[in-house]
Amino acid sequence: MENRILIKGRQEFMGKELPVISGGFGEGRKCICDKTVAEIHNQPVPEIRRRINDNISRFRENIDFIDIKKSMGDSHTLEFTLELGYTKSAITQAEHIYLLSERGYARLIKIMDTDLAWEIHDRLVDEYFAMRDEIIPEITYSHDFDTNHAGSRNMANRIITDWAFDQFCQRNSGTRKNARKIREGNSSE
User: Fold this and answer.
1) What is the DSSP letter of 14?
2) DSSP string for residues in 138-157
3) How far, in Å, CA of 68 to CA of 34, rounded?
4) 49-84: per-residue pLDDT in tens?
5) What are phi and psi of 143, to 5 degrees?
6) CA separation for the pair 5, 163 (Å, rounded)
7) Three-state SS for 5?
8) Half-sphere exposure of 26 (CA within 13 A, CB side)
9) What CA–CA distance (Å, rounded) separates 54 from 47?
10) What is the DSSP string of 95-135?
11) Three-state DSSP state, 52
C-alpha cells in the first residue's frame, strides 16, 4: 500500500478551497483531513474527532483513518500538517489529527446521521472523491503555498519532486519492462 501522502493542489467545494490529498490509502486515492470535514460540515474540529474517537471500534486504522499526529516527530509531517491549514497551537493541543479515506468518511457520516450530513456526503463523493482522473495533473507550485511558514518552500519542492518522479516512473514503465525482457532474453542464450 502506498503510504506517501501528498497535497496535490486545491479544489473548490461548496465555496471552500479544499486541499486535494492523495495517498496513504493507496496510490492515487484521495483522502480528507478532519479539519476539512469540520469546515464543510460547519462543526468544530474537536467535535469531528470526538465522534471518531467515540466510535473508533467502527474504524479500521490504515483503511478508514490514519492518525498523522502519531508521526509528529517527523519534521515533514509537521510541515505537511501546517500546509493542511492547522496552526501550530492546534497541532500541539490535538491528541489526534485524522486523515480519512473515502470509506472512513462514509463511516463518519453514518455516525453523524443527519439529513445535511448525508447531503454533504453525496456531494463530496460526487465532486471530490470521484474526480480522481479529472484533477489538473499539475502540482501546486511553491508560490501557492503559505510562504509565511519557513518550511513551506522546502515542503513544496519535495512535493513537486515526488510528483515529477512519479510521472517519470509512469511514463517509463514500458521502457523498464522492455529492458527487463531484453536482459532476460540475452541471459537465456
Assistant:
1) T
2) SPPPGGGS-TTSTTHHHHHH
3) 11
4) 999 999 999 999 999 999 998 876 666 778 888 999
5) -70, -15
6) 11
7) strand
8) 8
9) 10
10) S--EEEEHHHHHHHHHHH--HHHHHHHHHHIIIIIT-TTTS
11) helix
